[in-house]
Amino acid sequence: MKWEQVREQYPEQWVLVEAISAYSKNSIRYLDELSVISNFPESTFAWKEYKKLHLADPSREYYIFHTDHKTIEVKEQKFIGVR
C-alpha cells in the first residue's frame, strides 16, 4: 500500500506500519510500499505495540506515523555505541 492510500483509509490516526519496499538515499529512508499492522487513536498505544513487535523480530522495519503528514521520510542515524 502506498502512503497516500494509508492516509485515505485511516484519516487522522496513528498507524503502525511495516516497510515492504524501501530504499535509502543521502541518509534518508524512503518507504515505497507499506503494510498497515494496526491503527490507533493515540501514539502511546502505537508505541506499546511497536515495542512488542520489535522485540519479537528486530530485523523487520516497523514505523509509527500520523496520517496528517502528506509525505513520510525517515532520517537515518548511525548507531554509535556498544551493543
Please tag this protein with its features.
83 residues; alpha+beta; four-stranded antiparallel β-sheet; 2 helices; 4 strands; globular
Descriptive report:
The protein is an alpha+beta fold. Helix content is 25%, strand content 39%. The protein has helices at 3-9, 43-56, and strands spanning 14-25, 28-40, 62-66, 74-75.
- The stretches of 5 or more residues where confidence is low (pLDDT under 50) are none
Mean of all residue-level pLDDT scores: 94
Q: Distance between the terminal alpha carbons, to the nearest Å?
A: 34 Å
How are strands sequenced across the largest beta sheet? 3-1-2-4
**SS element count, helices:** 2
SSE order, as H and E? HEEHEE
Let me know the number of strands: 4
Content-based structural category: alpha+beta
Helical amount: 25-40%
Percent of residues in β-strands: 35-45%
- Characterize the biggest β-sheet: 4 strands, antiparallel
General shape: globular
